[in-house]
């Protein structure tokens, strides 16, 4: 009964896998296309680009402060009838006056000296734009690393699929031989059942790998704004590319000091703190501006009786202002600005310390991944040889089925571990590139 159920279930599982393969089209995806489409359509990158655009607009606004400030004012309104009262508040008369008032002004103010406030604000906006640009650069590097990770996951899953398909094929052949031995009375039914269970487990693992391929493909498709039903197939030549092994640890650290976005942001924050010191000092200085105005109004003000005529007047004014209260804030304002500079300098030193440890960790992990591949390549050869020996001994009735199934499991795990180790070599290398500012 169990045998019949197994014969019915396994084909159903296999046909389900095959049908899912045929239902979704495959797309050969290269790494350059992966980066290109990912950077172009990623929502996080678009958000960072908008932040750069906003900082650029703010810089343009800061530069506009160098230009004259021009204001145009227009007033037009009804004037009520005035009443003149005597000193005892008794009514005297209603003087004649126009019913409508008009006042039109044009005022242009050109700043001459602001103690460095305007130039300081322009420099601050330039530094803010630089921080936004460096944040965009960091986001792009992080996205590339994420894309490579998913791309390598796909490669690993396709290799798992191949390994499971191969083992399913071999397990099927082995099961046929075991059934013949059972019919000849050489072994018990227990060996047949355990072999059937192992084959069924391989089928389920194959299905699981296939589902994971679908899920990872969907994740990449969403980021790249492509059809979510596509199954992406990675370029196997990507793993054959040889990385530059001549670069030393200190060279990677030096590269990180020069190129890693977080270090650049720390340096820019120091410049921002120094700029804040300039602005603080500028607040302690007077402001000087030149103002030109022209007024066209009706009636003529400040005349008695009111004269219903148009009056056009203009004037040129030199304005000098100084905020006396700034003298009381001087000590604490300058101390706070200086402390902010020291704080940002300490942050840069701390960032350098973190980078040294991060680069060294990534470098050692990459070397470890390379060594692991060599060990697992040798382990796979041993597992293959062990399986060959145990397989031969079992069918010569010199070992039990447990030994054969264990040898097969060891062989399968060795293949999967080697595949994962090879992809990990590439991923740790890209981690090293990312932390050193080269990605």
UniProtKB/TrEMBL annotation:
InterPro entries: OMP_efflux (IPR003423), TolC-like (IPR051906). GO terms for cellular component: cell outer membrane; efflux pump complex. Keywords: Cell outer membrane, Membrane, Transmembrane, Transmembrane beta strand, Transport. Pfam families: OEP. GO terms for molecular function: efflux transmembrane transporter activity; porin activity. It is found in: Cell outer membrane. It comes from the Bacteria. Belongs to the outer membrane factor (OMF) (TC 1.B.17) family. This is Outer membrane protein TolC. It comes from Dysgonomonas macrotermitis.
């Amino acid at each position: 009964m169990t045998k019949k159920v197994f014969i019915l279930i396994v084909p159903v599982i296999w046909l389900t896998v095959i049908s899912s393969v045929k239902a979704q089209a495959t797309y050969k995806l290269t790494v350059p296309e992966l980066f290109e489409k990912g950077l172009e359509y990623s929502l996080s990158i678009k958000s960072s680009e908008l932040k750069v655009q906003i900082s650029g607009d703010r810089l343009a606004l800061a530069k506009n402060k160098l230009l004259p400030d021009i204001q145009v004012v227009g007033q037009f309104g009804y004037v009520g009838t005035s009443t003149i009262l005597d000193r005892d508040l008794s009514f005297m008369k209603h003087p004649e006056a126009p019913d409508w008032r008009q006042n039109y002004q044009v005022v242009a103010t050109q700043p001459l000296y602001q103690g460095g406030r305007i130039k300081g604000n322009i420099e601050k906006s330039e530094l803010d734009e630089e921080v936004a640009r460096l944040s965009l650069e960091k986001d792009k590097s992080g996205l590339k690393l994420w894309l490579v990770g998913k791309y390598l996951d796909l490669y690993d899953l396709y290799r798992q699929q191949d390994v499971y398909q191969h083992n399913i094929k071999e397990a099927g052949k082995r099961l046929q031989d075991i059934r013949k031995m059972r019919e000849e009375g050489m072994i018990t039914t227990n060996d047949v059942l355990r072999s059937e269970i192992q084959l069924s487990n391989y089928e389920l693992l194959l299905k699981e790998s296939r589902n994971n391929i679908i899920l990872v493909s969907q994740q990449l498709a969403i980021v790249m704004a492509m059809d979510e039903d596509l199954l992406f197939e990675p370029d196997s030549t990507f793993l054959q590319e040889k990385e530059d092994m001549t670069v030393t640890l200190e060279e990677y650290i030096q590269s990180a000091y020069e190129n890693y976005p977080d270090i650049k942001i720390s340096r820019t924050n120091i410049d921002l703190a120094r700029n804040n010191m300039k602005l603080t000092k500028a607040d302690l200085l007077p402001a000087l501006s030149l103002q030109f105005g022209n007024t066209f109004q009706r009636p003529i003000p400040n005349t008695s009786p009111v004269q219903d005529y148009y009056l056009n007047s203009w004037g040129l004014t030199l304005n000098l202002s100084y905020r006396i209260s700034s003298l009381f804030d001087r000590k604490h304002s300058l101390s706070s600005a200086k402390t902010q500079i020291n704080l940002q300098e300490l942050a840069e030193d701390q960032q350098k310390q973190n980078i040294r440890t991060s680069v060294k960790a990534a470098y050692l992990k990459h070397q470890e991944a390379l060594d692991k591949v060599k060990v697992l390549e040798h382990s796979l050869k041993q597992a293959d040889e062990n399986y060959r020996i145990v397989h031969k001994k079992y069918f010569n009735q010199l070992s039990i089925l447990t030994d054969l199934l264990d040898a097969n499991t060891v062989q399968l795990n060795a293949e999967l571990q080697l595949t994962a180790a090879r992809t990990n070599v590439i991923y740790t290398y890209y981690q090293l590139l990312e932390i050193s500012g080269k990605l």
